[in-house]
Amino acid sequence: MNKKVLSLFLVGVLAASIFASGCIGGEETSTTPSSTTSPSEVGGKVVWASTQLMPPAERAFLLNTVLPGFKEKTGIDAELIPIGQSDLTTRLAAEEESGKVTISLIGDLHGAIDYYESQDWLMDLSDMPALEGRTFISTFQKYSVIRGKKVYVPWMSATYVMVINKEAFKYLPEGLTEEDVIKGTEKWTYDEFLAWSKNIYEKTGKKLVGFPVKGLFHRFLHGYLYPSYTGYEVKKFESPEALEMWAYLKDLWEYVNPSSTTWDAMADPLLRGDVLIAWDHTARIKDAITKEPDKYIVAPVPRGPKGRGFILVVAGLAIPKGAPNKEGAWKLIDYLTTPKVQAETLAQTGFFPVIEEASEELPPGPLKVLAKGVAAQQSTSDALVVMIPNLGKYGGEFGELYKEAFRRIVLEGQDPAEVTKEIGARLNEIFQEVGVPLP
Amino acid sequence: MPKKVSKYVPYLLIAPALIYLAVLIGYPAIEGIKLVFYKDGGFSFATIHRAVNNYYFWPALKNTLKLVVVILPTQLVLALVFALAMNKVFKGRNVALTLLLIPMTLSDIAAGLIWYSMLSPSGFINKLLLTSGLIQTPIQLFGYQFHTREFLTLVFVELWRSTVTIFVIVLAGLQMISQEYIEAAEVFGAGYWTRLRHILIPLLKPSIQTALLLRTIYAFSIFGIVMVLVGRDIPVLAGEAYYQVTQIKDYGVGAFYALLIAVMSLTIGVIYLRLTKAEYLEVKR
Hints:
The complex is a heterodimer of chains A (439) and B (285). Chain A is an alpha/beta fold and 439 residues long. Chain A has helices at residues 2-43, 56-74, 85-98, 110-118, 138-143, 178-183, 190-204, 217-230, 240-253, 267-272, 282-291, 326-336, 339-349, 358-361, 366-378, 395-411, 416-434, and strands at 45-50, 77-82, 105-109, 145-146, 149-150, 153-165, 209-210, 277-281, 296-299, 308-318, 383-386. In chain A, strands 1, 2, 3, 6, 7, 8, 9, 10 and 11 form a nine-stranded mixed sheet that branches. In chain A, strands 4-5 form a two-stranded antiparallel sheet. In chain A, helix 2 links the parallel strand 1 and strand 2 (77-82). In chain A, helix 16 packs antiparallel against helix 17. The longest helix of chain A has 42 residues, at 2-43. The model of chain A is unreliable at 13-43 (pLDDT under 50). Chain B has 13 helices and two strands. Helix content of chain B is 74%, strand content 1%. A two-stranded antiparallel ribbon of chain B has the order 1-2. The model of chain B has no long low-confidence stretch (mean pLDDT 90). The A-B interface holds A 86, 205-206, 213-214, 257-264, 272-274, 393, 396-397, 399-400, 404, 407-408, 411 and B 55, 116, 120-122, 137, 140, 142-146, 229-233, 243, 246-250.
């Protein structure tokens, strides 16, 4: 009996070991083919992670127009991954660290790409085939080479400008002409802007100048007023020049539409007639100009004592190191920077072309109005170009701090010297922590 | 069904709800608490310190409480009045009922947008008043300089939008009250006020309790309407939680604000339950 049990047990062990070894062997054989096929599957497709053009309408433009056009031309499928900046940073870090890179193309802002480059995650693009039939605007070309390495191909650009309802020209202060404003001459200063706003108020009884305080107003503070008055975005945050700037803004605010604190974009207030002069991001005022192109002029911003500070936003296309399909990615870069797609991108999204040839593709009308204003701002002789600093996770707090300073000094009437000292200290802390020099 | 199996049926039936609560409410709540109190692997008050010292925190807390205190009682009184009026049969009752219910179909964002376009300086109401010659310059309701007006506008729009929630529950409660009580009271000569005070309101307490609980939770997390109408001119807690998470990316501070909202609604909920214990006339001495 015992012998029988033992033999049964042995048979069982033997059967189990055969079964187990078979299983393991089977798994091995079944994984091998899939591991060899998966790269080729990825290879046929370009995975494109983009932090840009993510609002629904803009995303629809990429999904319904751009990517099908690309597929038709090259036969390559592209998968768009809409992603936030911090998520993309985490994902790239994980992919580069583990060596399993799935993203072949990155679409992101200059500052973020600069950061990815500092982490050594990006390919050098100088050896890629030439992109024929287009001339990249020199400023963008210059920025895309970081520390001697061609890190990205410029993709789109944007800026923030003044939009002026032609009606406002009736109230120009003495000595300032329409041409001064449109061309951005030396006479078009922040003081003249104040005089103009005051004139409008005195003649019409209404405060018809507006800012998107709920929206991107912090960009106006750190990218326009601060550099124009102090020469820097952050470095002279608490300087006497900065205090002079805050005093100016308080004066100007007397003539700014009080509803400004409830606006997040200026297209609607312009169209409703709540304001005659507005400052905002080009994409956010595009609606007003498209709907009534004959009514508005897009003009350069005024200049301050230190020059004409304005922000240039550049988005670029970069390829991560170890990308599974860099040839496909390069083809997509090629496609995205053709004059036709660049002009279409402007028409659909309000982001400006980065190549000279695109302007030939623009039809006369609203887009020309926008493009003309942007070009005028970029070519002013006293231009002080400002890039948005890349502060990683502190990017949001950076903007909030400027808005807080504005709220406390201008809206609540707190002492500018104290507020700038307090907030300046925090700004310094952030830049130190990130290791970025004060711009 | 065998007795052994049927014993487990109730548990099986509530299991999906329990799993749902655990996964979608319990787990995030625990994660939220962890975000607030844990830092670098240990217990820490750093996040709370950061949250409480935020420039917007105290104004946000004050505004949220102010809105709750002003809106809730007003809504309750209005809802009671409407419900008592609608409880009677009269000509045009259905039309009136439909009109009252319309705001219920709108989201807070939609309601905010509608009222913003009506009340803004170039909006419909200002244009109407201007063309009829009643005012010379548009009435400015929005903007940081007009804090009180902004607050009152918020209260008005929120009343317009959400009083109906209480109204519907109270009306349902009213319709469940047996006419016999009222008739009996009438026989003994009780006037309208006496009937209202001693019969209707006490019998309505369970409905009022439910309605108030629901509305309190929503009132503490008021955000959409504030965001659309006045932005950050009147900061509120839920709005600050949103800004912290989406703009500033300080998830800990955002979680603290959310937790605070939860604790406040819970506390008020418990107080309601204590104060408005259902009364039954039969057992009341």
